[in-house]
Amino acid sequence: MEAKFCMTCGHELETRDVDGTMRRACTSCSFVHWGSYSIGVGALIVKDDKILLVRRAQEPGKGYWTNPGGYIEQFEPIEATIQREVLEECGVEATVKNVVALRDQPRSIHNIYIAFEMEYISGEPTPDQVEVDAAGFFSLQELETMNVAGFTRWLVDVAFHGRTQGLTMDTEPVVPLDGYGLFRV
Fold this sequence. Notes:
The chain has helices at about 80-90, 140-145, 150-160, and strands at about 15-20, 20-25, 30-35, 35-45, 50-55, 65, 70, 95-105, 110-120, 130-140, 165-170, 185. By secondary structure, the chain is α+β, with helices and mostly antiparallel strands. The strands form 2 sheets. Strands 4, 5, 6, 7, 8, 9, 10, 11 and 12 form a 9-stranded mixed sheet that branches. The longest helix is centred in the middle third of the chain and has 13 residues, at about 80-90.
């Protein structure tokens, strides 16, 4: 769907060249519609050589086993998003350790998906019975007979066979930058 009206002042948008790319721009103010984007997050939580998975109870992916996750909220720090999503979907408390994978999926709404390695804190996997109808920790052997989504199989490989430590959350940056979520090698 094409943007038709300015999100700043409400005037009609027109298509015009902005730095060499045709974009929707306001006819009255300086607003430019840069595109439509969504950011998803996912948790990779390993406990006792088993990974936490949930079974989707609704579309997309109904019936498939995936890692817990969801979409960030407008004013929610990304590390808070993934902690909230894991707790909501399956009652497990975990904290962010590293960013270990990224998926870039350009399409009508450009999707970026960030996978976090997380440290298990507490809780027994209990499905929310809304988004998720089953949850648990599973071994690689158990996954062989489960209906695991393809992307999740790739993430499981990252969790168990990752090649680096990934990006670590910088909780004490050299320059305090309030409101920033900072991750570094």
